[in-house]
Structures are given as C-alpha cells and as structure tokens.
Amino acid sequence: MRKLSITELNRIDKEEFKKVEKLPLIVVLDNVRSLHNVGSVFRSSDAFRVESIYLCGITAVPPQPEIHKTALGAEETVEWKYFEHTQDAVHELKNDGVEVLAIEQVEGSIMLQDFIPESNKKYAIIFGNEVKGVQQEVVNMCDNCIEIPQFGTKHSLNVSVTAGILIWEFASKMKL
Q1: Which residues contact 105 (CB under 8 A, 6 or more apart)?
Q2: In a domain, 4, yes or no
Q3: Beta sheet of 50-56, edge-to-edge order
Q4: What is the CA angle 79-82-87, rounded to 5?
Q5: What percentage of the chain has pLDDT greater than the value 90?
Q6: Which structural domain, as residue segments, surrounds residue 165?
Q7: What per-residue confidence (pLDDT) applies to 175?
Q8: The domain spanning residue 59 has which CATH number?
Q9: What per-residue confidence (pLDDT) applies to 6?
C-alpha cells in the first residue's frame, strides 16, 4: 500500500466548503474550557461538513493560537456563533425547529447505537464541560439525551473524542 499525497485526496478548498451541502447538524459546546478540545471539535466538524458550531459560556472563540493548533484552519471554514448562555442557544435552536440533544448520562437516555436520526430533521448536539458535563438546566431543555455505552472503569470520554464519535455517527447514519 502507498500513502496518498495531499493532491491525490481531492480536498475541497475554503470557498468550495462554504458552498457545499452541509450535514444538518449543529454542534453546541457548553462551557468547554480547553481550547485544544475546541479546535479538535472544529476539525472534526470540518471533516464531516457540520452546518455550524455554537460556542457557549466560557468556551473560547477564534481566533486563538491554541484553537488553531488543533483545528488546523477548520475554525476558518466551519461557521460558528457565540452565546453567553447555552440556554439562549437552545432557545434559538428550538425556535428554529431544531431537535436538541445532549450527550449525557441520564435516566432514560438513548444509547448511541439505538438512535436513528430522521433524514428530514435538523439536529443540535450539546457537548458539556470536561469536568461537569452538560449543565442540568440545559439537559432539562433538551428533547432527549444520547449516551455512548462504555465498558471500562471510566465513565466518561474526552469531549473532543465524544464529539468525533457523535459527528461520525450522524454523518454515517444521515448519509451526507
């Protein structure tokens, strides 16, 4: 096997990215404190053409060197918007008819493998703070919660890893 060169990958440029069809998914970061995690979420969102990212609370916004270090320019391609309070972002999403889901371990959560997104809907997924997760008040506002089954001794995953898993899962199930 031979590794492909950058030119052989046929990547679209920034201008093409702005014009192509996007995955009907909005990623919401609820008080994510690590700028490297924010950058990583931008990079995964670019890879699967997520519609936009909502940065909320203490979540840093571009331009920031620490975001760029992991985003590698994706902070310039993926649309983003800042909200001081995550609750305001959820209100806007619901007013726009978006189904809002949190990634959180709660009573009655839907296991990721059992969640089937509907092709005619737009979704928002809320990812929480690295220590505290999604705020309970925000969870209360959501239409549902999705949980990633875990089988080890830890009961959490890094927020950027979680985002990568969920974004891929939506992209593969919605067949962009």
Answers
A1: 133, 145, 147, 155
A2: no
A3: 79-83, 50-56, 23-30, 123-127, 99-103, 144-147, 110-111
A4: 120
A5: 96
A6: 20-174
A7: 77
A8: 3.40.1280.10
A9: 87
